[in-house]
């Protein structure tokens, strides 16, 4: 597991529990990351761990202000992965995720 000595990524700070509906290659998934350690696991899983060092996300305040940019970065990686594969990977990494069945959701 990746760690950082300072900044918001060093602990288990609560982020809230709002699910993000993200596109996959053949559908959507709802992903809920409630703590910073879960978000760090998600970024590691999608190969974007450098985002934990990105100045746009350097504090909890920055994460809130720049949430749309972070979600866009994550979505960019998931859009190439089939939904069932995405769900399997997310669940194996202990990241809460479920299929979104409505086509326009």
UniProtKB/TrEMBL annotation:
**Pfam families per the record?**
CoA_transf_3
What InterPro entries does this protein map onto?
A: CoA-Trfase_fam_III, CoA-Trfase_III_dom3_sf, CoA-Trfase_III_dom_1_sf
Q: Where is this region: Disordered?
A: 1-21
What GO terms are given for molecular function?
catalytic activity
Instruction: Give the superkingdom in one word.
Output: Bacteria
From start to end residue, where is composition biased (Polar residues)?
1-15
Q: What is this protein called?
A: Uncharacterized protein
Could you tell me which Gene3D superfamilies the record lists for this protein? formyl-coa transferase, domain 3 (3.30.1540.10)
